[in-house]
Amino acid sequence: MKAGLIFTLATVLAGTNASPGDKLPISASSDIQVAQEQLKILISHAKYIVKSAKKSFSPTCKPGNVQIRKEWSTLSPRERIAYTDAVRCLQKKTAKSPASWAPGAKTRYDDWVATHIDQTLQIHYTGNFLGWHRFFLWEYEQALRNECGYQGTQPYWNWGLSAETGMEQNPVWDGSKTSMSGNGVYINQTGLEVVLGGNGLPEIYLPVGSGGGCVESGPFVNMTVNLGPASLTVPGNITVVSPNGPLSYNPRCLKRDLTDELNTRFANFTAIVDNILAPKSVYDFQMQMQGVPGSGIIGVHGGGHYSMGGDPGRDVFTSPGDPAFYLHHGMIDLVWTAWQMLDPENRVYGKDAIAGTNTFLNQPPSANTTLNTEISIGWAGRGVNVAMKDVMSTVAGPFCYVYA
Ligand SMILES: *[C@@H]1O[C@H](CO)[C@@H](O)[C@H](O)[C@H]1NC(C)=O
Ligand SMILES: *[C@@H]1O[C@H](CO)[C@@H](O)[C@H](O)[C@H]1NC(C)=O
Ligand SMILES: *[C@@H]1O[C@H](CO)[C@@H](O)[C@H](O)[C@H]1NC(C)=O
Ligand SMILES: *[C@@H]1O[C@H](CO)[C@@H](O)[C@H](O)[C@H]1NC(C)=O
Ligand SMILES: *[C@@H]1O[C@H](CO)[C@@H](O)[C@H](O)[C@H]1NC(C)=O
Ligand SMILES: [Cu+2]
């Protein structure tokens, strides 16, 4: 992408800094209902800032053709089924990943899982975390559309809603045919805890959920997880690794262990709004989101992942092997977009665009991520690589969407 276009976009976005009507909140309310309203304002503000620009954002993305990504329950039942049908279609197509590299990658869906496993230590607690996952999700959405006939956009899971009702009462997780499938079958895990950390990081103790076994209803009832685990946390301080390595073939059922306590504690409306309003630098923003190591806090990112629980939900490497991963990361991307649009001049291509290096907590030490750092998602997507500067705005580079 041309530098001129980048700066034009920054100027266009920076030129419009007020949305009509609602006043922007300045700090998160501890009243959950108030925080829910604050989040609505922040989402519509971000959408307004992006869409109110007069110029086209990229040669193919114009204010008139921006796609809208929506919260799961606002999709009609038919639209939800169209989405899960497309995911199931991807799970029936043949992988592009060579068997010599990832013998366990059997399906096109597995291409995303294999890439994430392969790159996990270069895409979390790094400078590319947000941009890499934005691109990963976009290419998944495009594959659903181009390879499986899906006409809609990538939906998202608003964690705040399920924190209020309980996960199993939320349409993402209710186990019906219009859900993303629900809880795993109940397993007695009394007295056990989920222990994170190790490898030099302090331990964090998390509660177990209300399921634990194989998913037994909804669209993914008989889904097979082919890849991983690479580092699966099992209740009782056990870490499981696939015997022949995480890219080998290791078919098993999809397990979940829905954990309301984690959803409520780490990803309620107040937590979401606070993550958008409190951090003033991108370093602080992404640290709050992922949890500062040693703080005992896992942030909205960890909160969402661990409240799904199960296998591969509790394996950072293999987590995209649960189809709900993509709804979770839709919300991650929404939160980033909402944060960026509060100060587009600095947060899209400016001083608070990127912070960090290209390795997990800079271990081993590596170069700072910059706008020129390249991103690859391997055999997932269409094999088109991009640089960080192409993934900083949802309406520039390859992208053309906003959140509603
Ligand atoms: C679960 O197991 C514990 C002992 O580990 C037992 O005390 C408890 O009754 C069991 N609960 C259920 C619902 O089976
Ligand atoms: C799931 O698999 C089981 C065992 O193969 C089969 O009996 C059941 O009909 C399948 N369910 C669906 C919804 O495909
Ligand atoms: C968990 O397991 C690790 C590795 O075996 C051990 O060092 C640690 O003390 C254990 N923690 C608890 C709480 O049991
Ligand atoms: C909501 O989330 C915040 C931040 O994680 C937490 O401090 C607070 O206790 C949570 N509220 C409830 C009701 O759990
Ligand atoms: C990398 O980023 C850090 C933090 O912003 C900065 O202090 C350091 O000078 C940068 N290193 C290089 C080589 O640019
Ligand atoms: Cu990830």
TrEMBL record:
Stretches assigned to the Tyrosinase copper-binding domain: 124-141, 322-333
Annotated Gene3D superfamilies: Di-copper center containing domain from catechol oxidase (1.10.1280.10)
Signal peptide per UniProt: 1-18
Record keyword DNA-binding present: no
InterPro entries on file: Di-copper_centre_dom_sf, Tyrosinase/Hemocyanin, Tyrosinase_Cu-bd
SUPFAM superfamilies recorded: Di-copper centre-containing domain
PROSITE patterns with a match to the protein in the record: TYROSINASE_1, TYROSINASE_2
Keyword tags: Metal-binding, Signal
A GO molecular function held by the record: metal ion binding
Keyword NAD attributed: no
Protein name: Tyrosinase copper-binding domain-containing protein
